[in-house]
Amino acid sequence: xxxRILRIPFSLVAxxxxxxxxxxxxxxxxxxxxxxxxxxxxxxxSAALEVVATxxxxxxxxxxxxxxxxxxxxxxGATGPLLVTPPMTATTSFWVRVANSGLSIDSPAATVTxxxxxxxxxxxxxxxxxxxSDSYGQLGNGVGITGAASVSAGYQYSLFVKTDGTLWxxxxxxxxxxxxxxxxxxxxxxxxxxxxxxASVSAGRSHSLFVKIDGTLWxxxxxxxxxxxxxxxxxxxxxxQVGTNVVSAAAGSGHSLFVKTDGTLWxxxxNRAGELGDGSTINRSTLVQVATNVVSVSASNSVSLFVKTDGTLWxxxxxxxxxxxxxxxxxxxxxxxxxxATGVAFASAGSSHSLFVKTxGTLWxxxxxxxxxxxxxxxxxxxxxxxxATGVxxASAGDRHSVFAKTDGTLWxxxFNDDGRAGAGIGNAMAGxxxxxxxxxxxxxxxxxxxxTGGPYTATFSLGAFGVRTxxxxxxxxxxxxxxxxxxxxxxxxxxxxxxxxxPFTSITSTLTVTAQFAIxxxxxxxxxxxxxxxxxxxxxxxxxTATANGVxxxxxxxxxxxxxxxxxxGATGPLLVTPxxxxxxxxxxxxxxxxxxxxxxxxxLTVDAPPQPADLGS
Length: 619
Known about the structure:
The protein has one helix and 52 strands. The radius of gyration is 36 Å and the shape is elongated. Strand 32 and strand 33 (401-406) form a beta hairpin. It is mainly β. Strands 2, 5, 7, 8 and 9 form a five-stranded mixed sheet that branches. Strands 45, 48, 50, 51 and 52 form a five-stranded mixed sheet that branches.
């Protein structure tokens, strides 16, 4: 069979091809099914915002600050469906433009509302709880600390910032890391105030970093590897300023990291394992820029972790136990940042293990699992991240232990715990995560101790218009566990009677109000009044009354005619009266009360026998 070839002019072929492509690849405007939702964030913390959109082609994203449609303030590096915001210092709005080819749609703006650090009213007030070893006074000698805003547990010392911006220190000061102007071997307890106008703080092994409210970065303590970043290796016992426009900082064992307002990450100090991430293993006493688009950092023993605005987690430094999460362990210096995971909110680097929490609230760990610090003794940890828990809002990796707080305020610990560092009262936490308290908001793990802010949560006992506290149990109680609540003693007023509280005390696991309940009082009904009788001379007897009502009954006995209250019997406030010794006929009656309503019983007449005569006495 003869075949025929159809010849089409090139110009027509091009036109046909163009038409087909145009029909197949015609873009449509993206559809946003789930816009970013507004959030609440604490001072210098980040919030995770996410958008869900669909279209018939590949989507691109760009996040912005401000009002929807205003493109003057793009968030650098935020080019995906997830945004991890920079650390918050003010209430801020964010929105995202979703594009498909040349067509785009703008989401509504989501507002991240800041819980302020310093404010005369409406400030979030958290208390500080310390647990573990107190060999150098790092627990503060059991001193109750209220109003904590930022806390950090270091190597045998602790730092915290109060809501008024004051910085306080306690524990070891061997290298001047407490910032007191001197170094010594004495244990510092209770806490000592260091300076003012501070926003956040980070405690390392023997040096400290803190960021002031004006964005300046200050450093103090050991400087043997240049970790203070002042261009020298001279130890400083008085804080020195080393940076400006800083939003957060992290002190490691011998190195330091900090993030500027423009999202750039900077590093200084010890670098033998490549923990500075500058591509070398050379120590740096001056600042070196490492990365961009960074929102949070964590530093420990030769390990550095940071999270970018797109939610990616990056790691550098030592990987001897697989703590970088690379899928393997080795003794090679990892001097350039490597991406580990996506969808991450924040991370914490420990001595030989690391933790991170995803935006969905899942907790993950990698590295050494000695003592069960990754929560499961059935495995030996490993270089690949493994999920540990869900519903987590804060987590911290220490030396041989880990602690984390859940969304319900429960505090959990795992790993070495002979000194209670993973949770007071839970014993050695080797078998896996164990709950030790409630009311927790933020945690920080040091080498042998931990700090927790949050509880005690406040339980307010509201009495309403009809309640009167008559003794015992404060109306406002700050608690670390519901078992610590003490019921106030309450009686009714205004014709009401107290019937109980609106919830069992075991339900008090957060800041809330427990309300007293009252019922309309009814007058008591006396079914059995006290009975009259005969009493021997100088003898006594018992009188009793039986009454009922719809509330709690109270009693008061009197001597004399019913209704006459001038002669109360002292201490006779129950349904039973044991009379004093009687030398003459006497009358007694009782007032039975239910809230403000009462009933008086008839008087019981006790007739006293005549006294014995001398003849009766045998005289």
